[in-house]
Amino acid sequence: MFRRVFASALVGAFLVASAGATETETLHYRWNLGGFFGTMARLFLPGHGDGTLTTSRAEGASIEVQLDITAPEAAGEFWRYGAEIDPAHGRTLRAWSSYRFRGRTDAKESILDEAEMIDIASGIMLLRRDPPAAPRDLRIWNDGKIYPVVVLPYGSVRRKVRGEWMNVRHYSIRAREVPNERLWKGRFDLFLADDAESTPVEIVVERRMARVRLLLEGSEDEEDDS
Fold this sequence. Notes:
Blueprint: H1 2-10, E1 16-17, E2 22-34, H2 36-41, E3 48-58, E4 63-70, E5 78-86, E6 91-101, E7 104-114, E8 117-118, H3 120-129, E9 136-142, E10 145-161, E11 164-175, E12 186-193, E13 200-207, E14 210-216, E15 219-223
């Protein structure tokens, strides 16, 4: 299923032509830090900032997706998740993550090229192009390690997106227990607008009881109770 949808749709119209032969889509977010440890950390660390989700493809090349998270009051510090995807077969070819934070830096990168393998960045693409109607088992690359996970569809809510009320679909990637395999200590939630591009309205990445929540610029937290 993952491979089929990439071959038919992922190279489609949601990418916008830019200079030269490169196609690019760039989405901007505001983020805040939550969760138990996140609430405590905000006493000492940046609690909010900017996020950018960039999807690009040069003519005849693979697709790259990258999520960058920065804090304006902490110049030069960042968190980054990225992936290279084969559009013909729907596989995550390569994944990377890195950060620079309070004088510390770290970077991980792996060659993957396995069916049903994602990372945070390629997981966003998978759910945009091929949202499951029922739970789906996958495996996630996270900071150089691989974990079994499951995608859970949670239905829709009404949210205001760029001034317009629309349905927003909620999907969650959570740990899946498999004997003799690592148990993922994270969680990843994605809220997709019911529009032609399945625009990610909200992205939530949770690790070790700290949660980074990114909200698309021009969108609101409020749900439609009518």
